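Look over this record as teaching material.
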Amino acid sequence: MIQRRAATVAALLLIGFNGDTHALIPLYSVGVFMAFTLSQGGMVRHWLRDRVDGWRWRLSINAIGAVMTGVVLVVVLVGKAASARIPFKAIRIAAALLFAALGVYALLAPDLGGAAQGSSL
């Protein structure tokens, strides 16, 4: 079932971008750096909440990673959008996917048990 949904999303993206796979590459880079930034930010939050031995060192590494990947994300968005190599449509799709993921998390968080207790986005 998941493969069918993934294939449907892939087909819709190809249709939406008129079959130009080169136009999808900037969307991919935005997705990658968005995921890296969110994961590093999540780890910063984790170390602030669970202060085990060595948490300050780990917090600083993840905070630096979050800032660096966030800067790269902004540079890619601004640079590619300014040069018209990333269509505004791709930015809207990336934002929609982010909000969809946050919505899924909000729906599933109560069912995740101990892993999600006390955490909210």
